[in-house]
Structure formats: C-alpha cells, structure tokens
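Section 3.1: Structural characterization of target chains.
Under the original work plan, the team committed to producing a structural model for every single-chain target entering the pipeline before any wet-lab resources were allocated. The record below documents one such target. The sequence was received from the expression subgroup and is listed exactly as submitted; it comprises 79 residues.
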Amino acid sequence: MEEQDYGYIKIKLAKLIEERGISKNKLAHRAEMQRTQINQYCNNEVTRLDTAVLARICTTLNCRIEDLLEFVPAEDKED
C-alpha cells in the first residue's frame, strides 16, 4: 500500500528572526524558551507543535500565526 503524502507545516521562525533583527538568545530570553528549542523551530526539526510556545513566539515577535507557520501541500502526482 502506498503511503499518502499530506504535505507538511513549514516553520518560518528563522526568516522572522532575521526580519525582526533579534538574536536567537534575545528571543529565547524574552519568550522564556531554551536556545536549543529556538534552533529546533528555526531548522524545522519540531515534530509536535506546542500551542503555548507558538503563542510566546508570536507575542515576542509581534507577529500572527500565519507569519510563523505555512502549510505546504503535497505535490499532485499522476499515477
């Protein structure tokens, strides 16, 4: 049986950090997060999103959830 490709959620934190001109250390401090956690979000290495963490990031960076997350649909495949 072929595995279904549902697409994925892209985390755009690295781009937001760059746009806002804030360091990862400053973001970690202000959002009360570990630097390693910030890196995981920046590198799209998070498998389960924590809504409380997302809220802290959005508040700290003064952004909306759609600025932080993007749904990337699966590519249509012809059989």
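The first helix runs from residue 13 to 20.
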